[in-house]
Amino acid sequence: MNDHELAAHLASEAGRILLEVRESGKHHGKDLGRAGDAEANALLVAALRELRPDDGLLSEEEKDSPMRLGKPRTWIVDPLDGTREYGEGRSDWAVHVALAVEGQPAIGAVALPALREVLRTDRPSSMPPAVATPRMVVSRTRPAREAELVAEALGAELVPMGSAGAKAMAVVRGEAEIYLHTGGQYEWDSCAPAAVALAHGFHASRIDGSPLLYNQADAYMPDLLVCRPELAERALATIAQDALMVCRSAGS
């Protein structure tokens, strides 16, 4: 099984377990999220340690080890992205399995278990046709100020959605055209979605336009932009102009 196949297989299997845990009726509320997270994580970690013992590993649900920093290949996983949505019985949650090679989001799979779909880096689909009014997926609770500014500049409609993986895959699946996040994330939140988006021909970067780098000592990643390539330049320019105005205001 090559790395692409392994990522997709593990994301699918973790998703299957999460659905079984949710449908069992044994857990409710926050306990459901914790139980699902634990079981999916156990599967992913055990499989990767057995099948790829020489690679590094970073999981949201495991204690981080600095040993991964010396590895050219590190698996970065989120067993359950969107715990709240999962616990609420919604469909906008995901499983992320990615392989960063020399810091690049090279290989990955994002499972959307409630939709019975796995998007993967080795099976890119055709980019959906452009639409007249772009749709921007944002937080269900409070869209970031930068997202609202970019939406205004693009004439985009805001679409509330759950997990980071669900939002990024909404762009890949043609349900939205742009996903902009500035509220702070970690490497496991975006590595697999970024790998899949890039493989499918979409733009994925930091909001200053710099590349996304993974397997860093500090796994915190403040921001992310995933969008159709023709929207990237205008979105990044809007963010840069806003940052310049904020700096000028602070200095006056």
TrEMBL record:
InterPro entries given in the database record: CysQ/Inositol_MonoPase, Inositol_monophosphatase-like
Superkingdom per UniProt: Bacteria
Family annotation (SUPFAM superfamilies): Carbohydrate phosphatase (SSF56655)
Name this polypeptide is given: 3'(2'),5'-bisphosphate nucleotidase CysQ
Native organism: Tsuneonella deserti
Lineage, broadest ranks: Bacteria, Pseudomonadati, Pseudomonadota, Alphaproteobacteria, Sphingomonadales
